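Provenance

Sequences were taken from public entries as deposited. Structures were produced by running a predictor on each sequence independently, with no templates supplied. The record for CAP domain-containing protein from Pedobacter chinensis is shown for reference.
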Amino acid sequence: MNKLFLFFILIGFFLSKANGQSWTDAEFRKANTAANATYLTNEEKNIIMYMNLIRIDGEKFYYTFLEDYINNYNAMVKKYSNYNQLKITRTNSYYTSLLKHLRVVKNLQMFYPDEKLSILSKTHAQDLNKNNIGTHESSNGDSFSKRLSKHFPNKTMSENIDFGYSNSLDIVCHLLLDCGVPSLGHRFNILDQKNKLNTVGVGIQRHPSYTWCAVIDFVAQPMFYTSNQ
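Predicted structure for CAP domain-containing protein:
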């Protein structure tokens, strides 16, 4: 058992005691589909793992890792004078709607990493950094679908972009809550069932305006497709 995997097992054990929930070794192993993806950093691998834990048991994630994220976030922003506006309360409509959505999420198809797709994600994140932009469009005006379909033609695809975080849990929970995004598009990409999204690329880069940016690209591949992990 490698040290990184043991670290997450220990986190899961701590959270289970704190919240009355329990993650098993088998669930961590199932979620950790990017373990051998040498082209990803540890944080990029863990983005995929956390998204998969959500898809294994959404409600359990809500009461464990998401609770941990919210507690840490609220403690971090407490130093600001507008703390009451920044904090995430238990009555926040995005927080309460998320529980409704996660209660029905159980044992969904796992996301698997892909090297080619991850190169595309990293390239877009680098473009956002270099040109100080914050959109799904590339600096040359290409949409994300045009950018991805060059390499994944005739596939259903989507994209999440997060700003401000470099930590995998922060990135995933921020996108999952999707505060301020009425369409909840980032959330529904993570919880996708309709479009059969199963292949992901991930890239985390610095950003001049937001400190960090993370690009997560999703593609629906045939079930027999074997990801080059």
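Residues 46-55+108-219 form a domain with the Pathogenesis-related Protein p14a fold (CATH 3.40.33.10).
The chain has eleven helices and four strands.
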